[in-house]
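Checklist before submission:
- one chain only
- standard amino acids only
- sequence pasted in full

Submission:
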Amino acid sequence: MKSEVPKKSDNAKKIIGKYCHDCKVDIDLNDAQSLEHKDHNIVDVYEDEPDPSLIDEFRKQGLSLKPKNNKQPKKKMNKNIQTKDQRTSPKILYDFAQSKILKLVISENNSDEVYGVVSINKHVEVLNLGSSRARHWLNNSHSSIDTNDIHSDDYYKNVLNSMISQAQMNGTKRAKIHNRIAQLKDEIWYDLATSDWKAIKITEDNIRTISLDENSPFFSRSQSMQEQAMPKKGDDLALDKLAELLRIIPKDRLVFKVHLVALFLEAYPVPMMVFDGTTGTLKTTATASIKTIVDPNGISKEDNVSAMSEKQDDLIIQLFNRYLSSFDNVSRIDGKTSDVLCRAITGSSNPKRKLYTDKDESILNFKSKIVLNGVVPSLEHTDLQTRLIKYERISVDEIERLTEKEFNQKFLELLPYVLGKIFITLSKSLKEYPLLEKKIKPKTRMSDFEVWGEMISRVLGNDDNTFLERYHEKLKEESISAQESYPIVSSLLTFMEHKTVYEDAASSLYGSLAEIANESGVDTKSRFISFPRSSNKLTKHLKIVDSILKSCGITVQTYHYTKNDGRFTKHASIVRITKKPSIEPLDSFGKRPSPSSPSSPLQNQARNRPKIGEGTGEDPHRGNKVSSPKNTDSRHENSSGEGSEDGEDTFQRLVSQDAEKPYWICYTCNERGTEMQHVEDLSPNGLTVQSHQNAGHSIIFLTKYEAKLVREYQKFGGLRPDVLRNR
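Returned file contents:
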């Protein structure tokens, strides 16, 4: 018999059988000496030892040797011990995560995102379940109950994705996810971004610090969000000191202070704050300071300004992830960028493609606040022009210049008091809003900003309507300053100086405007001058400067003439210009202007310049002649409707000879402008000319000769004479 496998210990153990390695079978103790297993390798089988038949195989695979199951003594089961959990590990983790989430909502801002309210370290947080922070939370929470296994990031991501799918398909409630500030009815919540999730709650009655919970507005925090300083009371001049520190020019400080407070109104559109100016006017510093006050990203100046993304999708993400976006040294704003900024200011949906491999879209809904410095958007983007306010600053002299360390020290000392003053102002404004909302009449497209701005101004101690007057004055100043870049504005104002209404073909108007510009010394052909190069570009330029013209009382309308009545060439582009009338008082009739009255050479040129389509006897929009009434007045025998040699308009030349204007026409009551009345007669509706004036109607006065032209034109077919058309 071959040598047996050595025993593992010298201690005697109970032998319960034999095993033949050659036959690979178990042998009873009585059969171990049979001839069938003679000279075979037979070993003893001990109690609680591995089955010898598996020893070789286990050793080859490097596995541990387990006792033979069929030889194990049976143990009694304790009925109080639970059986093993039959769920899979991901299912166990899924149920665990569900138990830890206090509330689950789908974002109204982006329907693809699901948020969960969870309790972490004795405070409540709102987590985007698709974010890396949610995976870190689940990993950390799971490790507290399962310390044996370490799982990959994808393991936790898959579990959270399952929860997102369940929420999307099971009709989970939708809720708005706020970033830094939430405005709900008569409350404003400001997230301090502290590690214990504290916020400032502002109502009309008080201002207090509270802990966010599952019943609070849902706040999401981006990776760049920085903790805000705790506000303090006690400095009523904090906003004035800030304006002084940022060197805002004195006349802009009222609007600036109101604008800064309004940036905390999350629910309403607020104009973009723009800092322009030359080198040394603290443009970047001012931009970073506003960002730090409203929505800080860090401590340093560099943390609170960023470059504006050139790609539209990237810019949308920049705006979506921040309550207030601050852009530094913006050198160019094109049409697409302007459209994105306009939508961000007023609030709208911004579609964004998820992946280039499918057709799915993400719809991002947000209303953003913006501050930038650098180039001011050109007037070609008129929508953006009406949504911004520019602030000039006093240049910094070398003697007055502060080091960055000195500025930061002053600013950080002032910051808590600025926040305190802003929050107190907001609380009082919430109380005044229901009382004054209906009484404030806005005039611009930023109507909500005007209403809130006037209330904030009054709360700050200013007289009624002071803000509105200064704001409208500022917009007008900016429009006037923009005229330097667009000489077509000054040319049009000169052209309409003595007109109330003008209506003619764009080609005719272009000739007159180009002539005025050239006489003013403007090189209309220069590529550095923004002046239309041809008549077919005129209507586009008029649309660009529309906001400037409106601020000057000029309204421009363009349309295509579709009739074939001989008045204008069919399909011609027609421009109609109306000016708010400067109504003459009745006691001015019969009075000639003083010869010494001042007038500029440009005004004299415009007054004496031939007007296209006026008194020439030939309609410039068609090739045929128009019969003109024959003049019987000996004074005008050389000025018939056929036109003079120099083309000078008949009535324009005669105005200086016959200055009395005893006849009048009300365009407001008579659209065609052909019903003429004497100043001593009542109008068809029984009113005097004074009544029409008091009502603010559009009125023109005519000389005797002009009245005669009107009558004769009516007699010869009723066409509106040029004397009225060009008014």
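Reviewer check: Residues 406 and 412 are 10 Å apart (CA to CA).
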